[in-house]
Design brief:
The structure is a homotetramer of 295-residue chains.
Chain A lengths: L5 H4 L4 E9 L4 H11 L3 E9 L6 E9 L3 H18 L3 E6 L4 E7 L4 H11 L5 E8 L5 H4 L6 E3 L7 H14 L4 E4 L8 H6 L4 E5 L11 H8 L3 E8 L9 E8 L6 H24 L3 E4 L2 E4 L2
Parallel strand pairs in A: 5-6, 5-8, 6-7, 8-9
Antiparallel strand pairs in A: 1-3, 1-4, 2-3, 9-10, 10-11, 12-13
Amino acid sequence: MYMNKQYNQNKDNIGRLLVQCPDKPGIVAALSNFLFENGANIIESSQYSNDNAQQTFYIRFEFYIEDLINKREELETAFQPLAEEFAIDFAFTYNKYRKRSAIFVSKETHCLLELLWEWQSGDLETDIPLVISNHEDARDIVEPLGIPYYYIPANKDIREEVEAKQIALMEEYDIDVLILARYMQILTPDFVKRFPNQIINIHHSFLPAFIGAHPYERAYNRGVKLIGATSHYVTNDLDEGPIIEQDIERVDHRDNVASLKKIGQQVERRVLARAIKWHLQDRIITNDNKTIVFH
Amino acid sequence: MYMNKQYNQNKDNIGRLLVQCPDKPGIVAALSNFLFENGANIIESSQYSNDNAQQTFYIRFEFYIEDLINKREELETAFQPLAEEFAIDFAFTYNKYRKRSAIFVSKETHCLLELLWEWQSGDLETDIPLVISNHEDARDIVEPLGIPYYYIPANKDIREEVEAKQIALMEEYDIDVLILARYMQILTPDFVKRFPNQIINIHHSFLPAFIGAHPYERAYNRGVKLIGATSHYVTNDLDEGPIIEQDIERVDHRDNVASLKKIGQQVERRVLARAIKWHLQDRIITNDNKTIVFH
Amino acid sequence: MYMNKQYNQNKDNIGRLLVQCPDKPGIVAALSNFLFENGANIIESSQYSNDNAQQTFYIRFEFYIEDLINKREELETAFQPLAEEFAIDFAFTYNKYRKRSAIFVSKETHCLLELLWEWQSGDLETDIPLVISNHEDARDIVEPLGIPYYYIPANKDIREEVEAKQIALMEEYDIDVLILARYMQILTPDFVKRFPNQIINIHHSFLPAFIGAHPYERAYNRGVKLIGATSHYVTNDLDEGPIIEQDIERVDHRDNVASLKKIGQQVERRVLARAIKWHLQDRIITNDNKTIVFH
Amino acid sequence: MYMNKQYNQNKDNIGRLLVQCPDKPGIVAALSNFLFENGANIIESSQYSNDNAQQTFYIRFEFYIEDLINKREELETAFQPLAEEFAIDFAFTYNKYRKRSAIFVSKETHCLLELLWEWQSGDLETDIPLVISNHEDARDIVEPLGIPYYYIPANKDIREEVEAKQIALMEEYDIDVLILARYMQILTPDFVKRFPNQIINIHHSFLPAFIGAHPYERAYNRGVKLIGATSHYVTNDLDEGPIIEQDIERVDHRDNVASLKKIGQQVERRVLARAIKWHLQDRIITNDNKTIVFH
């Protein structure tokens, strides 16, 4: 528990433990004991038990261990017996090893700009080694920041060739997170399968309303009084992946499609930025087609 | 314009003029002149021109005329030439003639309670001559307020017989507005046709998401992060009528179907109450499948 | 952790443990072990460490123990050594022993109505043995529900006499929570001291703006664009007690004092209801002049 | 009314008329007639009458006149008799003559970045001929956009000298609007008087709470559950000028001063951007210490 003063001085000593296992008595006590005995001070912990038939238990710890990076192997080894005893599916992550994000964008740059804004002000704890686009529109935004910009024209006839290039770049730059910041190309099942729970999209509607193309036009035609945006993990069901975050903004009869888009952009950029932030902080566990987000 | 002191003393002298016509130069000037020449002080006016091909113009005036009720026939007659000149579809309404509302409810009483609360505190300017239900649950809420409660059991096999009784009551009590405050029976096309733009429903989802039955169960299964409610005029396309108002509330992974319902009830009652209030104040014009709501 | 099926069948077996102590390594492990060893399944847990000089640790457990009520003394006794070791300030509470609330109201009944509404629909887990008012306005709302209504006229000259009667009633009815649901009398320091963290007020402004009387008039004069309400524990600094919940609603230049009040009532009733609910669920710990609210 | 197709093709033909005068019968009719007779199609109109003793009437028209710029002198001359008859305080503005804005900033750049973002995406219809700062922090953001950056160090001892330079720049660049985008210097009464209703500030609290310095520290110490931001015209009463827009964001006990600031920045940038947009569209009329904002 004890959050000592070094905490503020050395963020590199912060780690996280994410746990998912069958719900059994004693699990919290066992995990707390493990962390205590390994010199960890728990900074934050959040838990959740679903009430489905299978009764799964989820917990996220954020902890501080002096000289964490040198102790990490030892820590992970020491966890093995516990993991086996409780049949735990787990992950340790380390603040020192920042996730590496690739941003994909097409012509509309508002989401990209928001992410770069948050990143420049230190609120998005990630490295951004590259931006990929099927258009040239965003080059002048990206390159002045010293980030390489890869222009890869795309259309449905050359999808595999395009994705081969993208996959090569993901490998070259050792990418952990693929952010679709209004990237308007459909990805192949093979591409998606390669990056499970790693691709995050922003859809410009309040899903499941207006799945698919032209949501603002359809929102206009339906005469809705609120428009929304949804950030979700990409799976091979179009716009059906686990939802991370949603938000809405009020509109009225005076709004036409163009103004819905303008208003929607404000929602989109804020929803995507929140989702990415939570993903980078390992606050999200997916559970079938849903997310548990530990705020 | 001049809102003289009598305004506060005599709300019975307030009227409204709703206008819908092809958009032509001079229409605002013509209408303003008409009201001025007939001794009206405009309290409020709101206009809207859609930018579709047919270019329709809409305006709502709220005005004060000394001794309005005695002058109303004269006023309506005087309006005829203008109505013809500009091909105006119009309605005059008078504060003194309060609309008469019938509330339909099934087992869940939260929307009914909210409406009765607003009505008792003077915020819902309507008479409520009766409540109709296919259950007995709400009787003890309604009768102590001196409102007759009609219990009409209903199911899909006796729909016509049930509706015949309801129609008879609507006529007997001279009802203007039918409020479906969580009334869980489907209405026949004949019934709906009889009351165009007079039936207002609350649907327990953010339409067009989760049209139809069990929206909270489906919201739960989809893992949405916001749940909503929608108030709309009832047409013969299920949950497809013109939307009047929508709102949402934030939920998270800890919510199960039961808690979604609880949270949703708070949204439902507030959305329905707003929609009814606007309808009673003649703030809504329907335009095909959309509403113009002049706030 | 294991939330077995009896959980749903027997809410009387649910208890809560609230803990506040100096932050030290091992505290979570110790508490988790204690609960595990005493047969508790943890349903929910939330913790917080402040980062002030004194470094205080707070945790709230909600747990299930078979046949809890008969084991409660044993449980509390077993906790003593741990409490001493870690210098814990703690409280056990039991779902079976519902808190008993007295509602105080003056002339405006909207907050009272909201609480009664929530209470009737089972969302406010409390007994309401009486309502006290310095006016007769609310009698007809309260008595039909079978709740005794005490009319105690009040003014600043007879404050002590009035409070003596109120205190006698609090004792007679064994009251745990005093809810000031728009009760417009100032309480004496002696009265307040007698009920620490037990009196919850709703103030009709977004504190610390508009402390004191006539907040809507002052909001109107200042031309604010949002109005708010604040629910807080009552201390002897007027409107300065620990804030539990706040919310706001948008207004504009067209609103006068009367309409600000109307809009404000909607905020007041929802803010007070939330605060009361959290208090009843033992979700609130006060920390000097602030609250920790475990959602 | 007729919004013909040229409207979309030529925004330069759009003008606005803002009117403020004693409330008298016939004023709307007179103004509508005037516009109609001068070939104007009214695109939008909004009115407001306050209910104070002096009964002032306010209206804003947005209109389209073919070849407006060449007709503007004629139009303004033609308006004189009406202006005199009704004692109208008025302003005509023309879309073609974009307002010219100077942005003042200190060290925190989030509001500046938001304005530049909106400006680049075409949503802020203004020219930005220069940015002025008492620090160098924002230079690298501003200059790449081709906007001159004036670094004018400032402190309270050299206030007059600093303002003399600033005034010279305002004149040199013919500035209409001075945007204080987190500019942390107090302005002298002489400076403020020179630019009435032209200086717009963002204050980092929900005014009138936390007037003056360090609002986030004070919000933290008070334990509020919402933090806000307020955009207002600058007058010579500190943080007391007419409020244009306010908004809030939810916070909780886990937030410290640093995170309140982060969250607050999101509110500040959105509140300031809205206020500036409305000012640029001539949607705001000030009325003593309040604003009328015609949405």
